[in-house]
Amino acid sequence: MNQFIQSLVDAISAGAVLGLAALAIGLVFGVIRLANFATGEIITAAAYSLILTWHLGWYVSIPISILVAVGISLLMELAVFSRMRKAGPATLLIASFGLSFLLQRVYELIFGNNVRTAPVASELAQSVEVGGIRIQMLSVTTIVLTAVLLIALQLFLTKTSLGLQLKAAAADFRTARLVGIPAGRVIGLSFALSGILAAAVAFVLTVQSGAVGPDFGVRITILALVGAVIGGIDKISGSLAGGFVVGFATSMLAAWLPEGMTNFKDAFVFVLVIAVLLFKPSGLLIKGRGVVRT
Amino acid sequence: MSTADTRQGLHVKDLEVAYNGVPAVRGVSFEVNAGEAVGLIGPNGAGKSSTLLAIMGATPRSGLVTVHGVDIAGLAPEKVVRTGLALVPEGRHVFTELSVADNLRLGAVARRDKSTFKEALEYVLDLFPILRDFGHRQAGLLSGGQQQQLAIGRALMSDPDILMLDEPSLGLSPTAVDSVFEALDVVRKAGKAVLIVEQRAEFTIAFSNRTYVLHDGVITLSLKPEDAENVDVLTEAYFG
Amino acid sequence: MSNTTSAKATTQSLRWRLGPLWSLVSLLLIVVAATMVTTMFGKSLQVQAQYALVNLVIVVALQLFIGTSGVLSFGHVAFVAMGAWTVGLLTIDPTLKKNLLPDLFPFLMDAQAQWVLAVLIGGLVGGLLALIVAPVLMRLNGLQAGIATFALLGVVNVVLTYWSSIGPRSGQSMVGIPEVLDLKLTMLFALGSIIVAWLFQRTRPSRLLRAAREDGIAAAASGINIVTQRVIVFTVSGVIAGVAGGLFALTNRVVQASQLFVEMTFITLAMLVLGGTLSLSGAVIGTLVFSAIDVMLSNLQSGIDIFGLSLSIPQGTRPIILGLILVLMLMFKATGLTGGREFVWPFRTVRPLPGNPPTNE
Lengths: 294, 240, 361
Fold this sequence. Notes:
Chain A is mainly α. Chain A has eleven helices and four strands.
């Protein structure tokens, strides 16, 4: 039973991280129909930033990593995606794929192929015992961090004018422009928020592994993208839910699959993904089969 | 004839719109001045919606469009709104997941004078009292007629001098249509210029100061309110 | 007067009928010419050329499906992997097999085949996997199709990496694939795949899908079952991809699951996008141009001499430049170098196959 609770907490934490990553992808997709595979490289950049500046103190390192993430995210929009407004979602996805590949090689060039390490927030990497259950400090921190970010995001989206503009643009971009909502500003905002979420994801992953290499963000981005699509990438809440489900499932499978099968956990998740897409192509959160807007 | 610098209102000259090489609007010219309502009617596919969208800068076009004498060529839609032009799109397109109040707030994003927000809101709520009752309700839950009122209210929140509407009577009950046009009359009398694109000929011809018939991308006829009673004129307008 | 009009009509009709054929011939000539050129240079260039020809077969398979159906597939490397695996299992020397792949199923341990046969079987295995998954995957469109096909790739990758009953233990590779495939033979396979693809373009499923791609509603209204057509095209492209996998195994002589995953998917997709997704010419031109640039860059990285000037680019910039080319291409001309039209050299481009490239995917 204790083991179950332990694995449950870990799974919720894994779901939370993946939910954040999927949300980072979903926020941008909602506005300009771009499923940004290069989000992984934003995460990687933030991770490098954390690892390389941690010795300056967390109150310096963390803000810098957020700035780096937001900066790279906006740079992607300015340099590449802003010039591709007429492209369809498939083209945009391939372009982001190319950008991801490109940036990974750039990181290789700058930082070398070997991993860089640093004991980022190593205090969090311990576990505590609560009533006979071993709980990872990092898992709890992740859940709390995610909850805080989500609440902040929700407040921003519902209570501020900018947030409302973003919501409207994500729901109906064309009408939003016709009503006078500035497209460029809203798109930039979505990229910036995406960067902030990516920085949070980078923090959690860096504490977990203590090391970063050029392909640091690739695996989580694959799962996050997959999660966002099965959750219903059309809606912001859909991306979050889908990401959570994939993260939760992967973690639970890792904990509970029989000995010889644990290596295959990713395969199970992928099969689950195909199954969901078959029965609910618009996403888990959309009622019925929905209208596939891509 | 007034010179370009002092012209007020919306002036459209030789507007042309084509999609993928297929022409939809082929040289349309008209003007809408303060305190008047102009109708634009015609059968489906005549190019009515294309005209409005092109004026708003949402589709590429050629020709001259000026607002208060200023050429708005090349401006993106959100910038066009800031020159004093507003569009109530076909099918209303209210932001269904947001509340009525939020929809109205969003309309005010493009206001040139933000300090008069409260007055503008009061004006809209007086015009459409039902919106006052539904302030916190999700816009998607409103009836078609109520959504139409909300869409017009939202457009009015940007403080336009020229209000354009794309098929405001679409899917509305006769009573709803009546209240919408009553409100438009108030707006017209308050000094705004109103451009109404409609499929329902009689109503529009009777309401507007003048009505143009758009057929296959060109204006074929200009009608006065008296012509609304004239069956021959109407038939020619639609089938000529 | 009637003589000249009928003469003109005959030339036009002749051009219309022979045009596509000439398009095929010119593509074949280009491939042969490019291959022959490399034989004039050193062995290392010929090796790179051989890899390029293997990629060509993959890209042709990709184009066959994506260009016809308009549906994105991120999963074709799964079929390549199946083909590579098959050839590896069938051609590695039996004693070597026992040592390297000790946990294999008995029937796999004993299976052996001559390499040409192995390649063809590899193609069939690839096609079989495609056929099995197609009824499920072909119902999807757009982004969902991309994700689902990628999930397929993911499943295959995980299974091939860890299931030691069908391959090496995790972390290890299949080595010892015999050296039997040379540049000229690879070229023959490449030419064959181009011919097969060209022939297939003329079959009914291909035409139907291309029509449906242009106007889905009209197609559905006329009673075409799009899913069935897609299944057929997907399967055929799976076969070709499987063959490519076999060729890869024989060229690389080492097979590991990690080589057949995201990076290969990206490179082949990049080649197709560069050339133009909508035409077979695009597949060929894209692969050749991309490979040529790749070779040039790798030489520049080691430093070359031109007219006494020593030129070189820093290490590690080669993949960056290649990535840049892809991204720039997508930004400015998403229809690729050929713009989706079939290529006829040395004359002008022939009119495109039915269905013009859509302006928005």
